[in-house]
Amino acid sequence: MSRPFASVRARATLAATLVVAVALVAAGTAVLLSLRSNLLGEAGTQAERSAREVATGLAFAKPYEDLPLDVDDRPVQVVDEEGRLVAASEDLERISGTGVDAVKPQPAATARDGGDDDDDDAADAADDDDHGESLEPGEIGARTTVSDGSATIDGDTEDYRFAAVPVETEDRGRLTVYAGAPLSAEHGAVNTALTVMLIGFPVLLAVVAWVTWLVTRRALRPVEGIRREMAAITASEDLARRVPVPDTHDEVARLASTTNETLTALESSVERQRRFVADASHELRSPIASLRTQLEVAAAHPELLDLGGAVEDTVRLQRLAADLLLLARLDAGERPADARVDLAALAREAAEGRRGVRVRAEEDVTVAGSRGQLERVLANLLDNAQRHARSVVEVSVRREEGPHGAGGGGRTAVVAVADDGEGVPAADRERIFERFVRLDAARSRDDGGAGLGLAIARDVAVRHGGTLTVRDTPAGGALFELRLPGA
Question: What is the pTM of this model?
Fold first, then answer.
């Protein structure tokens, strides 16, 4: 495959791989965060369960030594309202994250001394300020405070999530129970998931890149076929060849169909240009040869000079050259001028001096375009009508409301040129607008027609956004109708 298409494949593969990579990273991050959050929540729940189990024992006035402080080797602390550690797990060697770093209990008095009611009220108020809720003796706090830290138990250090639960006792005042749940499961699960992602994601990206490369190659294979055929057409200059159209009914198939349509139009244009050049050469050859012959005879025998014939051939050659030049400009896509042209006045000027031509025109029938080109259209139509008319040619200019022949809207200017000749057969009503076409002897070179007048007239009409058609008159002659959008 050629380098440009390989580049397209590389860009498509890279883009697909990057998109999947971003999606995988986003999804992996979300999974890891969700997994960590769930495991931390589970650890917090376990820590709270352990703390409330110990708090329940304290609420029922159990001695410290009877509390479940060493269940599953989890760190537990019991702290009084003075912040002193009064009970802890037996093998606890170090702890952080609970706010109390002590690991060896410092028991306070087992019973509270009596005092006046004012001191008790002050202590209760302090408790309320410290814990945010007022508890009755034997009641466990409903709110749990969670924190993260670490602890060393029997020589093993781990990270823990701690839950703090307050409990109000009758004989020992308010105590706070700190219990921890290990985070090793959370760390292990997160690390395992991360390892799987670090291994699996590159493998998945490699598979995506490989599949995208293959799919892109398959998708671009018809495009490469189109490119090769276009290169062969360019090398051979054979415009009759066509590119292959895949059976996929997708964008590539539409591209191939459009390319073939373009080749068809190009072939038609080139063929038309070739015929035009051949016909033009043939048409130019006759007056040039005739003129040369007359000049050579005049050079050898001045008394035999046919001056009228030489002038006639020169004029004919000049007109043919002008027609060919105008057709070349029209084929090149020359845009007409945007001047306002009065068709009624133009028709009267074109008919002036012509025998048997009558003009009926409404006033103020104007169009936008080139006065010179529209004048040429009327002159060509009148020349054609006079060649075929028996006696009379009628020209009418009028306005019509509604869409004109080119498909627009608004007012339409109509110029009709009718003769009383034999008319144009229905089968030939489009052929007469082709270049260098003559239907009968009346259109012979001797009558002054080269077969370009009607072709020029239609091309000019189309360039001005209008139409030129022919049909029969009620009397049987030909009626040429020029329709242009009104100004």
Answer: 0.50
